[in-house]
Design goal:
CATH class of the largest domain: Alpha Beta
Radius of gyration: 29 Å
CATH topology of the largest domain: Cytochrome Bc1 Complex, Chain A, domain 1
Distance between the termini: 28 Å
Number of strands: 23
Largest sheet: 7 strands, mixed
Shape: globular
Helix content: 40-55%
Number of helices: 31
Number of domains: 4
Length: 934
Amino acid sequence: MKQILKSVLVLLLIPVAIFAQDLKGTDAIPFDANVKKGTLKNGLTYYIRRNTKPENKVDLRLVINAGSILETDDQQGLAHFMEHMCFNGTKRFPKNQLVDYLQSIGVKFGQHLNAYTSFDETVYFLPIPSDNPEKLEKGFQILEDWAFNANLTPEEIDKERGVVLEEYRLGLGADKRMEDKYIPKMMYNSQYANRLPIGKKEILENFKYDKLISFYKDWYRPNLMSVIVVGDIDVAAMEKKIKDHFESYQNPKNEKPRKTFDVPNHKETFVAIESDKEAAQTQIQLLYKDYGLPKKVKTINDLKENLTEGLFSTMLNNRLNELTNSPTPPFTYGFTYHGGTFARNKEAFQSFAMIDESKQIEALKVLVTENERVKKFGFTTGEFERAKSEILARSESSYKDRDKKESEDYVWRYQSNFLEQSPSPDAEWSFNATKNLLPTITLNDVNVLIKDYLKDDNKVVVITSPEKEGLKKVTEQEVLAALKVNANDLKPYEDRAVASSLLRNPVKAGSVVKKETNDKIGSTTLTLSNGAKVTYKKTDFKNDEILLEALSFGGSNLYTNDEMKKVQFANGGLTEAGFSGLDQNDIDKFMAGKIASVSPYISNTTEGFRGSTTPKDLEYAFQMVHAYFTDLNLNAAAFEGYKQKQSNFFENMMSQPSFYFQQEFYTYLNKENPRWNGIVPTKEKWAEVDYQLAYNKYKERFANAGDFEFFFVGNVDDATMEEFSKKYIASLPSNNVKESAKDLGYRLLKGDIKKVVKKGKDPKSNVTIMYYGDATYSPKEAIAMTALGEVLTIKLIEELRENESGVYGVSARGSMNKMPYGSYNFNIGFPCGPENAEKLIASALTELDKIIKNGPEEKDVNKYKEAEAMEYKKKMKENRYWMTNFTKSFMNGSSPEDILVASENVKAVTAKEIQDVAVKYLSKDKTIGILMPE
């Protein structure tokens, strides 16, 4: 599933990096001249680019063109195991010194410092500060040590077995059991079916040390490596560092050939129908595998083909989306694309859908039918023009932000260039190419693609679903029959007319009655004639981004208990009806080629909007806000479609142990709360839902714009903001009522509580340790509570993961809230083996008790401060961080200027203050929840 989504993402991004005007089809795609690309004598490839977003930071990456596909039978899982060992000790950083050092300079383990292993590659991430020569040098030392100088001692290998086995344990469950059965059919007769990166448990437990050492020596070699350096750096200096650290290493004599592995073609149609009692959803995958190897994208013609494929996928997925938005949706969601599979050397035309468990064959028929409809009739001119406008809009937006790209974006691009020879032209070339090549692609160019996509052989169908009483398992014969569509029964797609406007009612503009500026944070606040306020901050962080949010106190806490139960699960479906007499498909068609989205919401204590847009399309976002306020449609059929999709999604969630645990645990803690209605809707709860009541309450919540404050952050223009605010917000209905957040007084169960929930057949446990209660909100204590969570996380990783090898991941989080009442919350959480749960709980509480009794170690407090300082520098130049600051200030009644001293406040926190909040809030009652297998 992750691979499919990744491939879709890549497909959507391809048009951003395409073609150039005045170039012949056989011309090569130019490589970005802003990148220094080179190859050392030993074959190591490097990429270096100066990029100042974020400032004073550099992203280092070590890419190994070797993964689990190269393992021998007795090495299964060792490519991934080797990744773990690189963090466990190297020549320059023995034992835990590597993680300890990086934490000391603000690099968080797992969040910043990370790695991954796949079938074909292993990749290490290292973002570090670039404004200190010593830190930069240490960064290159770490890359060099990962590449060639890992400490593979028997002691450290044995110690890490437990951690890797805990990661293996995390992957157990229904999805893994079903995957093990269908992968051999999907990857028929291929090495990929036998080399899942996590490996085999018995090998992880018992492999001889020399097997890991030989994998490292065989495959961690210069001619299979790339070093990527992108950030606020001097390119020449970085090139010298790469040469200094990597040029002296040699490839092994008699080196093993780096084989590539194909997925053989097959005449049969393979069908895998798998079910499991713990499966949460029903899904379909339909693959028509290509016969040959993927074509490398090297020339203008190659890229034109990719752009044509992008148009095809856009149009077909728009059709599937229309079906999803219908009153009788065939699936919760569905999409189709041509792209990569699990294997690097095999692509396929693929359809995917999440479906109603009782309509597996019907949903499969829909996917097949829509493919066949395209084959027989093709797409319409209207669809084609909208798809071109969508792709051009994305490409233009990327071009406008070409000088605002994060370093990480470039790193991924160069990694793809190294591993898969993906093109990497510069942004200006890409946009001009897209703009000039799109008009040269004809509708027929797109329509003919499907003739190559659809085949009678080389097909695979995978259906996964819950296994339960009363649910009839579909047969292979039924699946094969569903793949056959009588073309004579098909009718062409009917393309409805596109709406002319998002608004159907006249708008009578209001006025601005007051304009105030805050020079300290660069914001402007408009008070409008209807009482609404609009606060905006112009930034240059992104050229083509504007974020918007709106807030008003009130929310569902103003509903009665009975009303709440009737509308809780309905609120999310109100927008499915559309607005201004337009349904969702009408809106989607109108918005083709425009980038703007707005969503209303109702929380416990507030109602509001969240959205984003571009400067060019800002007016459409304002119109959406106006329409959601004044002209939300009432459409029972659309709501029924929403209910069906939600039911498909949540119907079997309780069969999943982790979800069942959350439901049971929080139901127990909320047993004194009459408003508690569970986490997900059951059939019984859907029967209680009152759509009309939910609609009425929504209209009530959004009847008074004068109680709202609207926030905009991004590349806004002062005159435009005034114009649109007067026209679309000052014109909204209002009254003089000012509501406040209401505390209903309901609280989680208090006391020293332990709740054990038994669910699942895998040997998996999950532990949650919680401290919570009422408290007078203190900004100083809130910072100390957050710091306590970060500091304790450092100690828990050291003890539970590194020393005891009992967990793969563990974290602690602390916070304080002011609304709707003063409160504190502190959580410790980790998955583990059932046999270790009690021991690890005791270890975690011991680490907490050390802080309560002695306070945190100063070095750990400094690690927290360094990480926060590095994050603060980055976030201060992000629109999202400023938006969060505005909304948080609104909620807490605090000054948005506090953002200017946030870093100083973190620097000022002391070990004593952290100890004090631990003593004050975490010495009392605790609640422990444990998931145990049945």
